[in-house]
Amino acid sequence: MSKPGKDAQAQDALRAFLREIEGHPGYLGGSVTKNSSASELRHLPGELFVLTFDFESTDTVRAFRKAIGDGVNPITQDDKATKSKDQGAVMFDEQASGELDYEKGGGVFAQLMHVHAYLVDEYSSSSA
Questions:
Q1: Is residue 103 part of a domain?
Q2: How far is C-alpha 74 from the geometric centre of its chain's CA atoms?
Q3: Residue 128: is its pLDDT beyond 70?
Q4: Other C-beta atoms within 10 Å of 128: how many?
Q5: Residue 61 · residue 55 · CB < 8 Å
Q6: N or C terminus: which one in the chain shows less Cβ crowding within 10 Å?
Q7: What is the pLDDT of residues 8-25, one digit of tens each?
Q8: What is the DSSP string of 98-124?
Q9: What angle do CA 74, 75, 78 make, to 5 degrees?
Q10: Domain count of the fold of the chain
């Protein structure tokens, strides 16, 4: 989630990050999506972005995380001495939308959820 007033900066940073990591061994690409319905999550203080990566294997992801560990970027803590925390309750409970901790990307991002997943099925309509 972007910090209020930092939506454009957040979107630009995420787009740039996907391109900056080009060439990392095992990195196949990624995407940035943004919540398209303001009414569903209108209580959130900033824009909700989803950043996804595609890697060849778990080992290449681990190597990637280790390689970027010291830099300021959208997916690692600004203060490396603190542990990242998911703050996803804010999406489901308007009362939880108090002060979020914008601890990533130079104070631009609050992590709501961190998920490791893999594709189990994919389908494209023949009419597409």
A1: no
A2: 7
A3: no
A4: 4
A5: yes
A6: C
A7: 999 999 999 999 999 999
A8: S-----BTTTTB---------------
A9: 75
A10: 1
